[in-house]
Design brief:
Structural class: mainly alpha
Order of helices and strands: HHEHHEEHH
Number of strands: 3
Radius of gyration: 19 Å
Largest sheet: 3 strands, antiparallel
Shape: elongated
Distance between the termini: 46 Å
Strand order of the largest sheet: 1-3-2
Number of helices: 6
Length: 145
């Protein structure tokens, strides 16, 4: 096979998505490290910022962690005063997790830096391509949920 060129298949989309996730998590971990939290903790706080008053199970699902990991994460965030737990008035057996003012302040501290990280991620895309990328990711997520 002298002179024959073998064309390699491009990496799978799953592999590429995982690469992006890992590099984003690495940058986010470095970004929030001075506040003494991890990227996973930051993600959970942002979920609560959008949907305050979730059960631990729902927060775990929305934050992409196991229930056991969420239990440890909630305990840590509560000890830091970034979240609080209250009984659900409609189901007294269930505890709801709420963002505290301290948690909101911590998120506000990182708003600009996180936005800059996201902008850096898509800086070679046009606004239209960025919108298409966001839509494609949402459709991919829905297809697998």
């Amino acid at each position: 096979m002298v002179g024959t060129q073998v064309t390699k298949a491009p990496p799978s989309l799953l592999y590429m998505v995982k690469q992006v996730e890992l590099v984003v998590r690495s940058h986010l971990d470095e970004l929030v490290k001075p506040a003494g939290i991890t990227a996973l903790q930051y993600t959970s706080l942002t979920v609560l910022e959008r949907h305050d008053g979730l059960s631990a199970a729902q927060l775990a699902r929305d934050s992409f962690v196991t229930a056991q990991s969420m239990a440890d994460l909630v305990r840590s965030l509560e000890n830091r005063g970034l979240i609080r737990r209250e009984r659900n008035p409609r189901n007294r057996r269930e505890l709801l997790i709420l963002l505290t003012d301290e948690g909101r302040a911590l998120l506000a501290r990182f708003t600009d830096e996180v936005r800059e990280l996201e902008e850096r991620m898509v800086r070679d895309l046009s606004a239209h391509q960025t919108d298409q990328f966001r839509q494609a990711l949402a459709k991919a997520w829905h297809a697998l949920s």
